[in-house]
Amino acid sequence: MSKVKVHEKYLVVIPKEVREELSIKVGDEVEFAVEEGKAIIRPRHGDVDAIRRTHGIVEWKGSIDGAIDRGFKEMGKERRES
Amino acid sequence: MRYVDSNIIIHHLVKDGCVGPSAQKYLESVAKGDESACSSTYMVIEVYAFLKGMKYSEQKISSILDSVASYGIVLLPLESEIVLKSLPMMKGRWRLGDAIHYNTMLENDITEIVSDDRHFDDVEKISRVDVSTLV
User: Fold this and answer.
1) How many helices (H) and strands (E) does chain B have?
2) How far apart are CA B22 and CA B116, in angstroms?
3) What is the ipTM, given to two decimal places?
4) CB–CB contact B72 A46 (8 Å)
């Protein structure tokens, strides 16, 4: 466990081993949470599980641009009918 | 930071043995923080339109878009200047969506777009990156 000092305005430096382990780079966002009396810091990247969950969930073969255009037409049709 | 075209997200969502697996690996590297990626808010609208064209229910579309929003891609605002620059480009060979992506890149000083769309190959000031080269 690393120890760091809390500076003015409560600034702290994330210890090197922690930022390397979590791949935290300058400019990244991090989240803080308090759980059972401990402060948890975690990098705010994306949700890998959401990516795996949604991979290949749509059945479609054909032009993507064509499908997008068709969707916009569908949206226009719905609006006219409502 | 690279810009991600809507077609990369859609290739990932679709059961596509060609671009889909590379798109998934690339998006995972973005989610893990190994790559930085951004796109226009218009990307979400295009993905919505694509799913709408599949005749999916609003509930199902909403669930998929919630997931897309959690991929870790930074969404850049669709500002009125971007739309105003993009609309006249439709008189040429541009689709509105492509023009919006292009102008969003210029507005944010982004020079590389990860895309399956070869129309971006011959465009000034930016270069297209094939997703398969990133994984």
Assistant:
1) 6, 5
2) 11
3) 0.91
4) yes
| Cα–Cα distance, B69 to A12 (Å, whole number) | 30
Q: Which domains does chain A have, with CATH numbers?
A: 8-43 (2.10.260), 46-82 (no CATH)
Residue pLDDT, tens place only, B78-135? 999 999 999 999 998 899 999 999 999 999 999 999 999 999 998 999 999 999 999 8
Non-local (6+) Cβ contacts of A61 within 8 A are B16
Whether chain A has a CB inside 8 Å of the CB on B25: the answer is no
Residues belonging to chain A with any Cβ–Cβ distance to chain B shorter than 8 Å: 23-25, 28, 43, 45-48, 50-61, 64-65, 67-75
Q: Output the pTM of the full model.
A: 0.81
A25, B1, B43, B71 from B74: Cα distances, Å: 16, 10, 11, 9
